[in-house]
Write a structure and sequence with these properties.
The structure is a homotetramer.
Chain A (H helix, E strand, L loop, with lengths): L15 H26 L4 H36 L3 H17 L1
């Protein structure tokens, strides 16, 4: 699971069901972004657009946190059990901090 | 520009150029969400997906803040000049707080 | 109200009552920080300390947003009415974005 | 380390050096809050106070994240190794989400 920034890394712990759930949520979020595009096109009132943007952010964060919990339960836990936890935890903390600022 | 939650409200201060800029950014964000969908489909590593989610959130917030600045410069400023600022400012504060939590 | 970073700037729109309210809240927050100090001293469980830190952040943001609303209602509104709104709005947007990241 | 909300929980993994570092930072933050109190007392300009509030929030989050990293490296890792990780991870996710909103 380790690797530098240039190579693609993969995971194998997502069940088909969890994967489908994530894909459905992302499909819905894609539709919400298209909805905002239409609102701007139709000159809808700024605050109403901003409220929708905020809703998408919340939905994206929810997906991100679901993925994070899964990640800690699998990748981080496995790394800790095999004694290579440190690097994985440093990586986790970076993404937690990045989420916090975005 | 006022109204209850059931009626659609419109704005008329967006220049064609600003509008096109917003639409381009939203189109790009829609593509980024589609990119995450593909990453999940291809079982890409959790942290790499989360970093992308965080990037989309940041891009959406940037659009939101650009829209907010425009909103204060036009809708809020106009409301203040015509003596109906209070309601508009309350509405602005609500959306600022919502952004902060999302 | 304008000025560079080196000179101290003042405001005159805070009523004695609002000022006292802010001062009381800040006094309480100071006590909460002291409380966390004591928790760390006594080796209290990490998560319990983190929950308290989060509570203080929320309390500080609440003070900040109260102050921001007041600022928009007075300083920003006055600047807009006298035709010098632009600079004040740029400054406002900067502090909104900074809050969002902290 | 587990427990309900009514009992005090303790940790034993903080080294004297780490503990002192945390205590020093919290002492400094307490002084910063007192500094804001003084700024409000002296009618300092709203935006200048807000910038300071934002700085304290950032400092508190920094302490919180340092504590969180330590927590994952010790409490969470130990729980995972002894097979009781699930509850500790749920608790961790809650505090991460709370931080994100505060």
């Amino acid at each position: 699971m380790s690797g530098n920034n240039n190579e693609e890394r993969y995971t194998n712990h997502r069940s088909d069901k969890d994967k489908q759930l994530l894909l459905n949520r992302l499909k819905k979020i894609e539709g919400q972004v298209r909805g905002i595009h239409k609102m701007v096109e139709n000159d809808r009132y700024c605050v109403d657009v901003m409220v929708q943007i905020s809703a998408i952010n919340a939905a994206l964060k929810k997906v991100g946190f679901a993925m994070m919990e899964d990640h800690v339960n699998h990748c981080v836990a496995d790394a800790i059990k095999t004694g290579t936890g440190e690097e994985t935890i440093t990586e986790l903390m970076q993404v937690i901090k990045q989420f916090n600022k975005s």
